[in-house]
Amino acid sequence: MKIKNVGVLTSGGDAPGMNAAVRSVVRCGLASGLNMFAIYDGFKGLLKEQIEPMTTRSVCDIIQRGGTILSTARCIEFVQEEYQKIGADIARKHGLDAIVVIGGDGSFMGARALTRQGVPTIGIPGTIDNDIACSEYTIGYDTALNTAMEAIDKIRDTMTSHSRCCLVEVMGRNAGYLALNVAVATGAETVLIPERPFDFEKDVLEPVREAKQAGKKNHIIVVAEGVDCDVMEMAKKIEAETKVSTRASILGHIQRGGSPTCRDRVTAAQMGQKAIELLLEGKSDRVVRIKDGKIDDIDVNEGLSMQKKAIDEEELKLAGMLAF
Ligand code: F6P
Q1: Given 234, 256, 278, which residue is the final one in a domain?
Q2: Which of 72, 203, 262, 273 has the lowest tally of Cβ within 10 angstroms?
Q3: What residues have CB less than 8 Å from 219, skipping those under 6 apart?
Q4: How many domains does the chain have?
C-alpha cells in the first residue's frame, strides 16, 4: 500500500529531544509529499481521537524545547487487544496509513499491536534511561546525563563546605547506565547500580571511613533508582556508623526536562528522517536504532526480544579506580 497520511505520537515517559524527533518526522514527511498528523497524549489520545493535521509551522521553535509538544501518557488499556483494535479502527477512520511512535519498549509494544491490527508503525527510541536493548543510544539520555552531572557538581560544592557525604539517587528505571556514566563524570566515590549487588560495610561504609581518614572534605555516592534501597534511610545509617554528616538527594524529574543537548537534537533529527525513509520504502514493524554508532533499523519483535544491554565492565572498573 502506498503511504500518504502519517500520524506521529510520543508515548511513555517524556525525554529531552522528543520535540526534535517530532519536528524531524513531520518536516521529512512533508518534504517527501506526505500528509502529517499529530496524535496527542500517546495511545490514550489515539483512543480519544485527539488527531490533528500538522504543517511545517506546527513544529516551529521546538527543537530546543524539553518535554513533548504532543504530550504523552502511559496507556494501561492499550495492552488489551480490545483497545488495540479500537485504536487501529480510529487510525483508519482518520485516514492514517501509518504511525510513527516515539518512546520506550512499552511504546514499541503498543506500536507492534497496532501493526498486528493492520496499521503500519515505525518506532523511534526516546527515553532518558537508555534501556532499549536493541539500540546503543536513546534520545534524551545525553541531556539527562548532563543535567544529573551539573546537579551533582553543585551538591559536591555544598558537601565540601560542610565536610559531608551525600547519597544522590538518579533515574534509570531498572538499569544502571545513567548512574554509572554520571558517576564517572562527577568523580563519585561510590556508585551503586542494580546490575551489581553490593555489600553495605565493604562498598559503602569503608570508603566513607577511608575518605574521612584521608582528610577528604566531601564524598558522593551515586545510587541508581533501580537499587533496592531507601537513600534517606541509608544516609542515616552511614552517619550513625561513620560519624560523617550525611545527606541524601533524589534528583527525580529534573532529569527528564530541559533543553536537549546537541547530541540528542542531532540523533533525533537523524532518527526522524530514517523513520520516514522506512515508511516510504514500504516497511513497517521496525524500530530505528543506533548500531555500531550508526543509524540503522531492526524488526520490532527481534528488538523487543533482545537481552538487556550489559553494563560496561571497564567503565565500572574505571569508576572505582578514579574514586580516590
Ligand atoms: O523511563 C523514564 C523514567 O523517568 C524512569 O527513569 C523512571 O523510573 C520513570 O520514568 C518515572 O516515571 P513517572 O514519571 O511516571 O513517575
Answers
A1: 256
A2: 262
A3: 159, 164, 165, 166, 189, 190, 207, 208, 211, 244
A4: 2
Cβ atoms of 7 and 51 closer than 8 Å: yes
Per-residue pLDDT reduced to its tens digit, 237-268: 999 999 999 999 999 999 999 999 999 999 99
For residues 76 and 157, state if they share a domain.
no
Task: Give bridge partners of residue 249 from the DSSP assignment.
Answer: 168
Which atom of ligand 1 is the closest one to the Cα of 128? 2
Q: Give domain status of residue 320, yes or no.
A: no
315, 184 in Cβ contact below 8 A?
yes
Same domain, 20 and 128: yes
Q: Are residues 189 and 214 in the same domain?
A: yes
Q: Match 505520537 to its residue by C-alpha cell.
A: 9
Q: How far apart are CA 124 and CA 103, in angstroms?
A: 6
DSSP 80: S
DSSP conformational letter for 205 = I
**Which of the listed residues 71, 128, 178 should we mutate to test ligand 1's pocket, taking the one with most ligand atoms within 8 A of CB?**
128
- Give tens-digit pLDDT for 86-102: 999 999 999 999 999 99
28-68 confidence digits (pLDDT tens): 999 999 999 999 999 999 999 999 999 999 999 999 999 99
Catalytic residue, chosen from 14, 129, 264, 297, is 129
Asked about 199 being catalytic, the answer comes back as: no
Nearest CA to ligand 1 atom 15: 13
Q: Report yes or no on 313 lying in a domain.
A: no
For ligand 1, atom 7, the nearest C-alpha belongs to 173
Domain with 236 in it: 143-256
